[in-house]
Amino acid sequence: MRLSNVSAGLTALIVLLVMDSCTSKKSADESPAAATTQPALPVDIILAQETSQLQTETVTGSLLPFSAVDIVSEVSKKINAVLFKEGSLVGKGQILYKLDDADILARIRQLQSELNLASLIEARLKQLLQAESVRQEEYDIASSKLQSLQAGYDLLKIELSKTAIRAPFTGHIGITKVFAGSYVSPGMIMTSLQNQSLLKIQFTLPEKLSQTLKNGDQIKFTTELNNVMYTAAVATIEPSIEASNRNLTVQAVYNNKSGLLKPGMSVKVYFHPANNNSKGILIPTEALIPGNGSYQVFLVKKNTARLTPVTILTRTDKEAFITNGIKQGDTVMISNLLRATDGTPVQVIKP
Q1: Which of 50, 68, 99, 337 could disulfide-pair with 194, CB 3.0 to 4.6 Å?
Q2: Euclidean distance between CA atoms 61 and 58, whole angstroms
Q3: Are residues 150 and 246 in the same domain?
């Protein structure tokens, strides 16, 4: 009895070991198949269509008056009168300041008297010289004195003209810094004058864009004042690039007949570089994957996501214009990008 029980126990143990071995082998045989089975990731896609895009460059700039000058005195005098309204439009030649001229007028009257007498003496000696009644030397002295007095008289006239300070051109006058009774000296700034009927839009271009504009080209610009897009024409381009910053200075001219825009305003300048009609693929920005200073996209190839680097020419909040990396007819993933990796099986969701 004891021997039979031992034999039965051994037989049961052997059966259990064989069954466990078969089960383990079966699990091992089935595990690779289970590991390779991965559900396809559902994705939305677009088909790449080649298109053309006119590139727009944007730079910042400033508005400047077409012409501007500081009004200064050329002589040391007291101001008798200020003859303009601050901030008003003044015409070319209009008197802005009248300086004290009493001493100059007195000297002119004195010199005028001496000039009249010298003129009579010169005329009389000229007649006597023709009659050979006086020597040539006497006439030459009288003639020289007349010329000297005439030069002095002309000089006083010029000095008198400087006591009436006039506007050199038509424009808007600024705030006066001096008033009647003030004493001014040469070079002292009294006010400023600006021609604002035309405005200059001054901006700089980086070296790589230095050949994109030429005189006469149209530019667009906006200001912080409103969203209106204004048009101006390039008028002046510096002949050389500034060595310190490698920028080229450009000026365009805008007809400010409305007077709405003011010098000193900041502007954004928009222009189209010449011969820049680029061809590429337009895709939604959500299809872009940033990384290491560049961008990639997922292309669907044979139901598999393939990570592909791309080159972006321009980009907005909604779209990116791709010039390299995507071809006409390629399938571009636009959803489930965060769940995908290179080689992930995908299933395109039909619209």
Answers
A1: 68
A2: 10
A3: no
Distance from C-alpha of 311 to C-alpha of 283, rounded to nearest angstrom: 12
Distances 222 to 69, 147, 267, 336 between C-alpha atoms, Å: 27, 62, 6, 39
CB 44 within 8 A of CB 335: yes
Structural domain of 179: 56-98+172-275
Distance between CA 269 and CA 232 in Å, rounded?
10
Residue 27 lies in a domain: no
Residue 318 resides in a domain: yes
Tokens of 92: 């070319």
Which positions ≥6 away from 179 have C-beta within 8 Å? 79, 82
Q: Tell me the CATH number at 154.
A: 1.10.287
Span 12-52, pLDDT tens digits: 444 444 455 444 444 444 444 444 556 899 999 999 999 87
Say if residues 73 and 188 touch (Cβ distance below 8 Å).
yes
Closest CA to 248 of 234, 261, 262: 234
Are 232 and 261 in the same domain? Answer: yes
Task: List the CATH number of the domain containing 337.
Answer: 2.40.420.20
Together in a domain, 200 and 263: yes
Domain-terminating residue out of 228, 257, 275: 275
Here the tokens at position 56 are 């727009």
Contacts of 58 (CB under 8 A, 6+ apart): 268, 269, 270
Q: Are residues 286 and 152 in the same domain?
A: no
- Gap between the Cα atoms of 182 and 161, Å rounded: 19
Structural domains of the chain, count: 3
Tokens in use for 204?
């700089």
**Separation of alpha carbons 63 and 264, rounded Å:** 5
Rounded to whole angstroms, the Cα distance separating 87 from 98 reads 18
The tens digit of pLDDT for each residue in 100-152 reads 999 999 999 999 999 999 999 999 999 999 988 889 999 999 999 999 999 99
* 256 and 118 both lie in a single domain: no
Instruction: Determine the residue type at 135.
Output: R
- Residues 6 or more apart in contact with residue 296 via CB below 8 angstroms: 288, 289, 307, 308, 309, 310
